[in-house]
Design brief:
There is one protein chain. Helix content is about 5%, strand content about 50%. It is mostly beta strands. The chain has a six-stranded mixed β-sheet, with no helix packed on it. Strands 1-3-8-7 form a four-stranded antiparallel β-sheet, with no helix packed on it. The longest helix is centred in the first third of the chain and has 6 residues.
């Protein structure tokens, strides 16, 4: 139901764009979330977006990451700019409430 892509390795200060491909039904019914998981910090909510475009950002990414909806392609994107080593994590796309999760995409900043 949710398929992430766009992860990879990037240098400190660089940019990366994550995408989460889903369906019209899911976008219509749920707010969409990006989480990240690291061994040391567990699972953290990075950003979320509602159908009206209202967005939330964790303090750690505010001003650097931007979440957006591409309704034409049923995709949720997370633009990551000025990345730091502490952004290294496994990033997951999910619906609010946790009913649907993607398989995760690894982001490594070095």
């Amino acid at each position: 139901q949710l398929v992430e892509s766009g992860g990879g390795s990037v240098q400190d200060g660089g940019s990366l764009r994550l995408s989460c491909k889903t369906s019209f039904v899911i976008l219509d019914d749920f707010d969409m979330m990006w989480y990240r998981q690291t061994p040391g910090n567990g699972c953290e909510l990075v950003s979320s977006i509602s159908g009206d475009g209202s967005a939330y950002y964790a303090d750690s990414v505010k001003g650097r990451f931007t979440i957006s909806l591409d309704n034409a392609n049923n995709t949720v994107c997370l633009q990551m700019n000025m990345v730091k080593s502490e952004d290294t994590a496994l990033y997951y796309c999910a619906t609010n409430g946790g009913k649907y999760w993607g398989q995760g995409t690894q982001v490594t900043v070095s």
